[in-house]
Amino acid sequence: MITSLEQLDLTKAYTFKDYLSWKFQERVELLRGYVAKMSPAPTSTHQIISSNLHYNLGYFLQKKPCKVIAAPFDVYLPSIKGEGETVVQPDLCVICDTTKIKKQGCVGAPDLVIEILSLGNSRKEMTQKFQIYEQAGVKEYWVVYPYEQVIHQYKLEGDTFQALPIAEKTIKSQLLQGFEVDMDTIFDTIVE
Fold it and tell me: What pTM value is reported for the model?
């Protein structure tokens, strides 16, 4: 039984089954089969933004079939083009096909994924996640830049993410018709 991250060979590819068997405290993701260490506890700014988005999405989705779920929550994405299985923990995800929600997490692509960047996120990691979400069929993807107070928004067109214009005052979901939230509400009470 794996009880410590140090017991893993980080150059080896792993599977969903392996991931589920690990019994250690460190937070990790599985990106195309390879272990990726997650940042330590997020900052208060990160958590405030997450809470603001979670609250607004949750309120909007009341009595609708979609569910919004916040991290830590595993999303299991199958191997694409033989590149290895993926387990990610997006900051927020919206799942409209609730049959994908299982005890251990979401099996298959969520409809909307929101990642809030932390200082520990590398460009390589975010590029890799962008490609993973795109190939998995995530319909809408938001990348939140907390300190710039900007959200990059992408919509899946065919099998390719298309960048949408950057919202200045209000951000609107392309997927969740009628959902919009003021940028000031999202970035309210940012802690320096």
Answer: 0.86
